[in-house]
Amino acid sequence: MMRWLLFISFLFPLISYGQDTIQRKWSLNGYVSDMQSFIFQRWDGDWTSDNLIHNRLNFKWHNTANNLNVALELRNRLIIGESVKNIPDYAKMIDVDNGFIHLSDNLSTGNSYIFNSKIDRAYIDYTKDKFQLRIGRQRINWGQCFTWNPNDLFNTYSYFDFDYIERPGSDAIRLQYYATSTSTFELAIKADNNHKITSAALYRFNKWNYDIQFLGGILNEEDYVIGSGWSGNILNASFRGEISYFHPTRHFNDTSGSVVISVGSEYSFKNSFALQGEILYNQNKNSGIISFADYYNKPLSAKTLSFTPFSMMLQCSYPVTSLFNVSLSGMYFPKIHGFFIGPTLSYSISNNIDISLITQSFGGQLIKGNTEYFHLAFLRLKWNF
Fold first, then answer.
1. Model confidence over 204-243: pLDDT tens digits?
2. Phi and psi for 4 in degrees, rounded to 5?
3. Contact 218, 200 (CB under 8 A)
4. In the prediction, which pLDDT does 254 show?
5. What is the C-alpha to C-alpha distance for residues 284 and 222, in angstroms, rounded to an integer?
6. pTM
7. Strands 131-138, 324-333: pairing kind
């Protein structure tokens, strides 16, 4: 908690500097949600029930005179239920912070609840002509695809974590140079909680009506990585993809690398029915996944996006009315004869209040000859402000 105070005390003098002489603009937005969840392996087996009250606060300040922006964003979570009681070290799992500075704290804990607060954005952003410099905890998104992102070296996220739309941030320094209106050069470096460094450069440009990027760097001081990505259209459908090659830094000449590729497309029909598909190939065989629950909760990297060589995703969505939307996503994992299926129903009660029913089901043979199932169901009421 003390490191929180030190970090915030560093930011706020910058915010208050020159209060009487500069033009300032403050903003605050966020949301509050209440979500009931159930986890089980069989319909007639034991169910784990939890309730999550999730509050997000996004503070931003802009100095129009000096092109300076400061952001402080945090999420507060009150978790009540059986997971707190039954899962060993659950409080430590909730308090995990992968950043160089630990900005998470379990403010209060009990036998059946945890109240956690975590800062996932805290940065200073300065723009001068064609240069932009951002220092602090931030989101660095180099991905082009929707489900799997081999190019996303800094902030890999799980497709299944639908309740965390902001995605995690990194403690990083990022420099962007906008060479032209359609080309950008970036340099970024981050440090994680193990004091491991990830550093990389990216060049993005537009050619043939495609956004194309090339990147190279070092991932967690463990792998050299080079990659490329693209985003454009074929006829009326989008076409995007990413490819990254990882090679261990140790024993460079005695070891082989691995390739991770994702390719996807989206198409919207005239009646607003939308269809989306994506395929992932992951040559890396060291995912360490031993169960679907492990896959669901384990932190990912651009190198360990899946636990099977091939993964396929198909998703469709349709607005039944202007207030009611339905979607269905599915995945197939050929090597383990496995699947994922995730229907979602969403209804807008008002302009800033909606209610959603989300279910997620996994099945397959992670251990040959033994079919495992893992089911989750969520009912969420959310208010945005």
1. 999 999 999 999 999 999 999 999 999 999 999 999 999 9
2. -55, -55
3. yes
4. 79
5. 14
6. 0.87
7. unpaired
Q: Does residue 254 or residue 72 have the better pLDDT?
A: 72
Give the integer Cα–Cα distance in Å for 73 and 61: 12
User: Cα Rg for the chain, rounded, in angstroms?
Assistant: 22
Structure tokens, 112: 């059946």
Give whole-number Cα distances, 135 to 7, 14, 157, 174, 215, in Å: 12, 13, 21, 7, 21
Structural domains of the chain, with CATH: 2-15+24-384 (2.40.160.10)
Six-digit token string for 51: 């309730």
Q: Report d(CA 146, CA 133) in Å as an integer.
A: 27
Q: Please state the φ and ψ torsions of residue 18, each to the nearest 5 degrees.
A: 65, 40
Mapping DSSP onto H, E and C, the string for the chain reads CHHHHHHHHHHHHHHHCCCCCCCEEEEEEEEEEEEEEEEECCCCCCEEEEEEEEEEEEEEEEECCCCEEEEEEEEEEEEEEHHHHHCCCHHHHHCCCCECCCCEEEEEECCCEEEEEEEEEEEEEEEECCEEEEEEEECCCCCCCCCCCCCCCCCCCCCCCCCCCCCCCEEEEEEEEEEECCEEEEEEEEEECCCCEEEEEEEEEEECCEEEEEEEEEECCCEEEEEEEEEEEECCEEEEEEEEEEEECCCCCCCCCEEEEEEEEEEECCCCCEEEEEEEEECCCCCCCCCHHHHHHCCCCCCCCCCCCEEEEEEEEEECCCCEEEEEEEEEEHHHCEEEEEEEEEEECCCCEEEEEEEEEEEEEEECCEEEEEEEEEEEEEEEC
Token pair of 211 as six digits:
């956004």
Tokens of 372: 């495992």
Token pair, residue 105, equals 């704290």
The residue to which tokens 């959603």 are assigned: 356
Task: For residue 103, count other CB atoms closer than 10 A to its CB.
Answer: 22
Which of 91, 98, 60, 61 lies closest to 77 in space, CA to CA?
A: 91
Give the tokens for residue 357. 């029913």
